Structure formats: structure tokens, C-alpha cells
Recover the amino acids of this structure.
């Protein structure tokens, strides 16, 4: 009832909003991945609010920058009250919020989920152009490409598997698979024909001869039932298996930090190649 009651007020605020400018000066982001691009490409004074997830150091690469920026919880009421001239949302932003903001005639930039490096580059250019900061986008891409070019892959590509809670992994057509490829690593899930994201049995992992078990977590993770399978004895019994932990913030989003994820995995592969 409360949300219904405020809709007339929101409509009034939206209709009263000033038309969008060539370079927006009142930017609101409602998505973790959008937060990372907005905070690094826009002038700080132009960013009115980012999502509350931007302050989470486990998943956000801009947690330090977001500490001094007001946050929102993705509610249309919050956004309308700020009278933004650009709202950046993502594919997984609440559809009800996005629909209401469109009814309010709010200028919206909706970002998809990049599945490869070219899509990352395209999205950086898209956001930078919308912010009127094309040159900053070009520099961000150049820096990412320099990091990718500096990666030293192992001489002989080892077989690896990425395991996430509940046994989920990434196969062909996923950004994770491309990151592994750029690191010089063979992806078990892709070689077994898995497309995009899905599950893989631990028995398959144990019998495949994988050398690297890549986990999407930091060392000091919070235990959960979904992650209990990662401690299964069958994995601990594999003598040549090396555990690699990739902080979620490096590849939760399709941003330039994926180059750091690839470099970390490549370094672990080289260490495994050189032996104990």
C-alpha cells in the first residue's frame, strides 16, 4: 500500500525532472557492476548514489571509493528523490524498479552481462560515452589490455576446473572460460561440452586429472552449506591438485579487473608446473 501511495508523488518528481544533458552531473547507479564503472569513469562530484553492494570489499573493486558515496537499495523512491539525469542499471536490477523509473521518464542506461573480453571493452566504451568521458574509457581499456599482454602463461597448459558453491562451474561461452584461456589454462567443463554455466559432478573432477581447482572465494570466507562440498574428502585425496583462490571481486563483474584474475591463475599454474 505504501508503494502504491507514493507513485503519484514519484510521477510528479519524474515529470519535473530536467532533461538529460550531454554530460550527466547527477548520476545514480543501482547495480554492483555499474557502480565499478561509474565510480572510476565519472567525476566523483557527479555521482549522487551507488548501490549498497558497492561498499562490500568481498565483491566490489571500488569499496574504498564507495565508502564516501551515499548508497541506495534499488528503490524507485530513492532514485526519484535524487532527481538524477542518468540512472545506470543492470540486467538483474529489479524489473519493477526499472519499469517505474521508465514511467517517470528517467534517463536510463541498462547494462548487460559481458561474456567475453570484447564485450567488456564495448561496455566500458558504452558507459564512458554515456558519462561524457570517452577518453577515460579508452584509457581503462588500454590498461586492461596491457595487463592481459603481460600475463605469462605456463609452458604446458594444465587442466583446471572452477568450482563454485553447490558444484556450479563455467563452460564454453562464459567469461570465466575466456579468462582461463587467456591465462593459458585448459577448462575441464568446456572440454566436457558444458555450455555457459552449470553443474559438474565431483566424481568427474576426481577422475579427470585436473591440476588446478579454482575457487571463487577468498581465504577468509564465511562458511556456508553451499560451499561444504568444496571440502569433500575426494578432492583432498587428489595428490597433484593445487588449490587456487580467486577473490570474487576480480571476476564477479565483467570489468577490467578480469585481467588480474587471469594473471593470478596463470601465476598459480606456473608454480604448479615448477613443482613444490
Amino acid at each position: 500500500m505504501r508503494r502504491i501511495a507514493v507513485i503519484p508523488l514519484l510521477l510528479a518528481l519524474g515529470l519535473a525532472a530536467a532533461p538529460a544533458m550531454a554530460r550527466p552531473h547527477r548520476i545514480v547507479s543501482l547495480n554492483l557492476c555499474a557502480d565499478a564503472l561509474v565510480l572510476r569513469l565519472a567525476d566523483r562530484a557527479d555521482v549522487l548514489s551507488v548501490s549498497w553492494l558497492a561498499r562490500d570489499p568481498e565483491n566490489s573493486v571500488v569499496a574504498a571509493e564507495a565508502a564516501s558515496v551515499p548508497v541506495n537499495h534499488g528503490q524507485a523512491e530513492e532514485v526519484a528523490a535524487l532527481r538524477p539525469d542518468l540512472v545506470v542499471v543492470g540486467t538483474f536490477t529489479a524489473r519493477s524498479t526499472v519499469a517505474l523509473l521508465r514511467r517517470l521518464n528517467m534517463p536510463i542506461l541498462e547494462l548487460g552481462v559481458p561474456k567475453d573480453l570484447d564485450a567488456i571493452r564495448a561496455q566500458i566504451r558504452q558507459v564512458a560515452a554515456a558519462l561524457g568521458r570517452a577518453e577515460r574509457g579508452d584509457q581503462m581499456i588500454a590498461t586492461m589490455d596491457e595487463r592481459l599482454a603481460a600475463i605469462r602463461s605456463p609452458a604446458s597448459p594444465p587442466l583446471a576446473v572452477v568450482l563454485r558453491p553447490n558444484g556450479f562451474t563455467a563452460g564454453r561461452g562464459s567469461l570465466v572460460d575466456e579468462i582461463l584461456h587467456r591465462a593459458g589454462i585448459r577448462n575441464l567443463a568446456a572440454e566436457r561440452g558444458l555450455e555457459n554455466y552449470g553443474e559438474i559432478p565431483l566424481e568427474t573432477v576426481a577422475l579427470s586429472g585436473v591440476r588446478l581447482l579454482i575457487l571463487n572465494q577468498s581465504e577468509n570466507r564465511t562458511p556456508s552449506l553451499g560451499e561444504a562440498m568444496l571440502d569433500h574428502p575426494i578432492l583432498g585425496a587428489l595428490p597433484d591438485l593445487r588449490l587456487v583462490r580467486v577473490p570474487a571481486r576480480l571476476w564477479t563483474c565483467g570489468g577490467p579487473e578480469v585481467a588480474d584474475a587471469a594473471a593470478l591463475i596463470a601465476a598459480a599454474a606456473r608454480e604448479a608446473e615448477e613443482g613444490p
About this structure: The first helix runs from residue 2 to 16. The domain at 153-274 is CATH 3.40.50.1980 (Rossmann fold). The radius of gyration is 21 Å. The chain is about 40% helix and 15% strand.
